[in-house]
## 1
Amino acid sequence: MVTRRGFLTTSLGALAAPMLAACSAGGKGAAGGGQLLTASDVHVADYPTVTAVKWIGQQLEQRTGGRLRLSQYHSGQLGRESEAIDMARFGAIDITRVYSGALNNAFPLTRALCLPYVFDSVAHMRRALDSGIAETVLQGFESRDLVGLAIYDSGARSFYNTKHPIVEPKDLHGLKLRVASSDIFLQLMRMFGANPTPMSLGDTFSGMETHMIDGAENNMRSFHSSRHFEAAHYWSESQHSYAPDILLMSRRSFDALTPADRRLLLDLARQSVQVMRIEWDASENKAREAVLAAGVKFNAVDLPAFHEAAAPLLREYLQQADIAALHRRIRDFA
């Protein structure tokens, strides 16, 4: 009898096979010997999270004399984030970087990081994450075949669209916006009056070009690297969420490492957060300059109006004791 787990493992392995023919998860590399780990990301080659994981791979190879190496598949080569999560859970790939919003439904503690206006700024977010909150959230992955390696912040998320500036929530009424498959973001967009449309990042550009959607919400770096600014010429600084990215590893692959190698990998993953942040700060500024030069129109929003519109959602989630406790800890660093 074929079990669901067996079916998923077989299916996900088949999905990854074309890309991983030379390096099945946790196995031997095709050249040079040693153990080759695989990592995936939907973002492009020079995106800060990709750069940070590349750094981890370089350090692993250097520290182990080539015994441990890492091969990266960026730009969505191994599929969407939802697929990468399952592939990691079942050991088809070793490491993946995932947007926290895509994890909300399966890993409840990530919801505290995605709630509207929980962080006041990038500086506030980094202080809070570095205070031990990141460790608390990462521990929550242990129950479902994953290991939380690090949390990479990803700037403020704002609205962009093809129609007009967004100043108040009422300006979103009737707009079809791409969102990640997260209950929080679906609810939030409805509270703002928009029509949320779950869609992968890779499908968003064509969605705007074909008028399937009118816009989306994301950070400035992704707005630029995905080239969404070529279709959406209005950027509105709502900064409604600072939902970060999370670096995950297959529990199966992690357990296959020696205790010393596990410690090394965890240490390098934590160190890579600073690598990512340096890259992020520099590239975000360049991205903003580039989209301005391309003619994108920027505007400020009525932040009190957006706070008020989002408040019922915040109150709903703060009824959950674990989310409320994490929220209090985050706000202590405001």
## 2
Amino acid sequence: MTTQKCLRIISGSEKGSLIPLSSPPVTIGRSDDNRIMLSPEIGASRHHAELTEDDGLWSIRDLGSMNGTYVNGERIEWPRVLHAGDKLKIAADVMIFEEATAAPESPATKAGTPTVSLTTTKTDKPLNHSQPDMEIAEETAAQLRVLVPKLESVVTEIGKCIVGQHEILHSLMLALMSRGHVLMIGLPGLAKTLMIRTLAEVLDLRYRRIQFTPDLMPTDITGTDVLEVDEVTGRKSYRFIRGPVFTNILLADEINRTPPKTQAALLEAMQESHVTAAGETYALAPPFFVLATQNPLEQEGTYPLPEAQLDRFMFSLRVDYPSEAEEEEIAESTTSDRSVELSKRMSGEEILLLQKLVRRLPVSKHVVKYATRLARATRPADPRAPEAVKKWIHCGAGPRATQYLLLAAKAGAVMRGSLVVNCSDIRLAAPPVLRHRMFTNFAADSEGVDVDAIIATVLKEVQEPGEKDYQDAK
């Protein structure tokens, strides 16, 4: 029998009743247009709280109520991800978030018990789906007014430890907001590991580091089953010991130094956000963010990442040398006894909210056409491909590049505090998105042609859609 998320009432006249959760969002309040209607006597607001679901995870947020919404005794200010057993308090009503293995009985079906009910409107649509676009835009803008300054403070706080590398930090934030993963390529000593560790500390997220070596095994990443024996009964059982992949930010250091079998252990985690071991599936708690590093010089004894795994990364970032002034500052600060104290600027719940805002942001057909046109222009067989692509590229970017171009552009608009995604956001995202999805041929390698130079040519020659494009589509 299938399981379903539900709320169990543990106080009031409806104690013990189950309310099934389906067709999110689910609004809670005393107004009759809520999906869950509460009794006016308990002191709830007209629209008190809202339950939403994203990729199987349910979260609750307060809708500006007078009495507040509480999770496990703590008043929430931001959306809170819910786990089985969490206790919710809305005004005078207390309920438990859990799973039901059978279709629960709705309190609305019980005669004479109107205290808690499931509201079915004429359209049977969630409240947010019936809101005018203007109301949704105003709500999103209000959330951005709070979160964008916090994003800026995150970058400022990281700057206490990291000198320069502003574009890299900006790209890391874009990928994190887009639920993407990043491949960082740079020489040793350019603060790649320090940058990631500092990011995790400022965001108050769990951080783990894996040093990839030729003898690293897949179970060293995902975890393994251990046989345990009960000393009293003599009974034997297996217990899964979770590996370092069970974290929020994972640094895969020198990922190309381990064989493909071990590299592939990250594929499922990166793509599906879960790990399968001995037939059991274990979910990874969001947010989950993988940053892999590569040394571009020492290639002897390494295993280049296959194209399928490269495509799992949203960005490929090249970490370059600092400027002379920055290097002087680095030398001065790191050779003194000055200690840097970092403050936590954002929480995991706020990162999850940002990720939802990025996905919610609308994109015009004009921007979608331009992103699609750019990605297709990297393929030698495409009619719009510039001569540089036909001459020097063996294989171009796939459809995932278009998706990541749009997500990165949305995140870029959010970073600017804007609700409008434009083509300049697409152009800014193009180099890190396309760099590892375009593969040069022998002619390019022999002539020393760099992929970034080809991307610059594509951006220069591929024009934005014009009036003729829309006339042709009619």
